[in-house]
Amino acid sequence: MERIVVYNSKTGFSEKYGKWIAQELACKAVSYKDMTPQHWKENDVIIYGAGIMAGRINGWDKVKKIPERCGKKLIVYAVGGAPMKADEVILTVKDNNLTKEEQKEIPFFYLEGGIDFEKMGFFPRTMLKTMYKMLKKKKDKTQEDMGMLRLFERSSDNSSKENIKPLIICAEQI
């Protein structure tokens, strides 16, 4: 089976993971912007990954509408700043992006990336700073809230090649 990794990256974390995944699977990694109909047609397994904004995987809605991807086996990875153990956040992202039916058919993986304020656009940077201020004012903060506060304080990179192991195993079994 021919595989391709398609990443949609704004700050570099999804691209980094995409290239690591492609390296492990000995396949090609291509930016979503550079994908052609031929790429979609030539590959049986499409691994799509992108960052998360407001609980949505960037570009995923567009990928689902591409006619050439029909009949292909899909694997999705979402890259965010929340820790790998933030189960509630991860479940919300999964539910926001995949219907219950899609969740049965499309393997989903969350990969911890980080935050790069310097590469972010104005809107996402402002949104995160607003969330930071709201969390800071919150009384009775949970452990997850405290973790998110630390995350929003400065740019950070928590990506790790170790995080892709379950996705690699899944892709190799297809």
TrEMBL record:
Pfam families associated with the record: Flavodoxin_5 (PF12724)
Coiled coil: none
Segments forming domain Flavodoxin: 4-141
Alphabetical list of PANTHER family matching this protein: PROTOPORPHYRINOGEN IX DEHYDROGENASE [MENAQUINONE] (PTHR38030), PROTOPORPHYRINOGEN IX DEHYDROGENASE [QUINONE] (PTHR38030:SF2)
Name used for this protein in its record: Flavodoxin domain-containing protein
Organism: Kineothrix sedimenti
